[in-house]
TrEMBL record:
PANTHER family: 8-OXO-DGTP DIPHOSPHATASE, NUDIX HYDROLASE FAMILY PROTEIN. Gene3D superfamilies: Nucleoside Triphosphate Pyrophosphohydrolase. It comes from Streptomyces olivaceus. It holds the Pfam family NUDIX. Keywords: DNA damage, DNA repair, DNA replication, Hydrolase, Magnesium, Metal-binding, Mutator protein. This is 8-oxo-dGTP diphosphatase.
Length: 144
């Protein structure tokens, strides 16, 4: 089966990163992720990101650039991450779908939440890419 992209947002506001706690499926519930979802056939990753952020969080967001890297999820899915920001006048994010809590994490709080295991290297890369602060992950590996 060919690879399918899950696109997720490094949504940053005032130097803080938005994290979302999954409410389903059961094996992922309670763990934190970058909000996003599957890119549909014929859809660009940027369009998918804007659509998913609107559906899941009720926000109007603008994609920035892709964070270099690709992180394997359950096959055939692969995680790609894009930076994003809220457009002026956007509603504040709310956990409308797939999530039951949201947190804006300051750089020294990013590892306070239990991220999905597969998101940890992606979040490390986001921190390095955005220069959010060299806070090592609990695994002890300092971001590049
Ligand atoms: N959105 C998102 N999903 C992630 C991350 N890490 C990770 O393993 N996943 C998994 C969870 C899901 O199995 C899958 C994404 O599917 P989803 O359920 O969020 O996306 P969707 O709304 O397009 O899905 P669907 O219900 O329409 O099928 O990827 C992440 O950081 N963000």
């Amino acid at each position: 089966m060919s690879e399918r992209i899950v696109v997720a947002a490094a949504l940053v506001d005032g130097g803080r990163l938005l994290a979302a706690r999954r409410s389903a499926p059961a094996d992922l519930a309670g763990r934190w992720e970058l909000p996003g979802g599957k890119v549909e056939a014929g859809e660009s990753p940027e369009a998918a990101l804007v659509r998913e952020l609107h559906e899941e969080l009720g926000v109007a967001a603008e994609p920035g650039e892709r964070v270099p890297g690709r992180w394997p999820l359950r096959a055939p899915f692969v995680l790609h991450v894009w930076t994003a920001r809220l457009l002026p006048g956007s509603a504040a994010p709310e956990p409308l779908e797939d999530h039951d809590a949201l947190r804006w994490l300051a750089p020294d709080r990013i590892w306070d939440v239990p991220w999905l295991d597969q998101d940890v290297p992606a979040v490390e890369r986001v921190i390095a890419h955005l220069g959010l602060g060299a806070v090592p992950s609990p695994g002890g590996t300092a971001p590049e």
